[in-house]
Design goal:
With 452 residues, this protein is an all-alpha fold. The chain has 18 helices and no strands.
Amino acid sequence: MNATVLIEMVCHDVIEEAVSPTRSIELQQYHVNEGVECNEALPPSAPGTDALQQWNHPRINMWRVFVTFMGFTIMGANDAVYGALIPYLETFYDLNYTVISLIFLSPLVGYTIAALLNNTIHMRLGQRGVTFIAPGCRLVAYVVLAIHPPYPVLVVIFMLAGFGNGLEDAAWNAWLGNMANAHEILGFLHGFYGLGATLSPLIATTMITKGNMPWYMFYYIMIGGAVIELATAILAFWDEDGEKFRAEHPRTSDKKGGRTKEALSNKVTWLCSIFLLGYVGVEVALGGWVVTFIIRIRKANPFAAGMTSTGFWLGVTVGRIALGFVTGRIGEKLAIAIYLGFSMGLLLVFWLVPEFIVSAIAVGFLGFFLGPMFPAAVVAATTLLPKHLHVSAIGFAAAFGGGGAAIFPFAVGAIAQARGVQVLQPIILALLAVILGLWLMLPRMPSHVKQN
């Protein structure tokens, strides 16, 4: 009898411990405080809010993750095809390097506007609003490009495509960056960006050189992709309106002003933003000018030069997926420093060995080691910043990255007009050294925060 009573008392205590919300919150708060400095003046989180979503739970996430992968594939195809089209745009519009480089500069305007409006769109319309606006903007841009308007219109319409890219860049990076095993998920997300970036120069080059089609025919393919994304994304995120977003992202600080202002007052936002400014500048300048460099300096034929660009973006794709499983396990700070070291070595090979085959191989491996940089910066932001600042901070960082994608390729083109396209490698080498220094300035990131 005494043993039975004792067992009942123990079971009662265990059940009470398991179902007590207060005790559950206290335990969650204790574990958070072990690794992350918290604001003690704030109330504890509600039950369940600290649990990280997974790519397959709830089940609707599988469909939503697929939609984000599709969006980033189109985004990558959009960004990478510029390099393959430059030689043909020069001929079609009869322009020099400096003027043709404006197609790199104009998306910056769209990215900047997206950075300013990202938080407002999320707060009022939620992720549903993003799925209407971003694919819609790209669809309109591709329709205009397909009718090959005068070059000034081309420059303006790339701003609209940049705005759509900027919205999705912030929205899907912030969402997936808050999931369990964020390195791996973001590796796949940016891997699909690399997939689109790999395929678009290949398809465009093949259409132009083998199919004897004009450059603008490529954008009929982009129209089809944008239509499919628009329809599927709206259905997948239909329930994610502004009210739900506000409920899931309550403000957890007592600072005055808007969330974007608060994000910009944090040094982590600026370090990640300037890092992405340099990194995306490296990525797009290499992907954008490597075809012209290989044709003019390495004396390769146009099709082989186009395949070099494809090899670069293929390396980016494989690197983002494969190294995503490595980065979180050996530590972000060390891993990215190692990748940047390899990147600088490969760039020197590309620069100093005047052989086409060596250049093509070096560029492919360079893409491989550059691949994980963007996902790592997003993980850094989502790890080191409070959740309510993620959309604003990542949106701002993405706009800065868009600035790199515009400013540095444009600068390469302007300098190349005077000094020749061989200025590409020294500019890239200097940028790699700068972003390595910026990365090492970030605070230490607790490796356990994003694990499932």
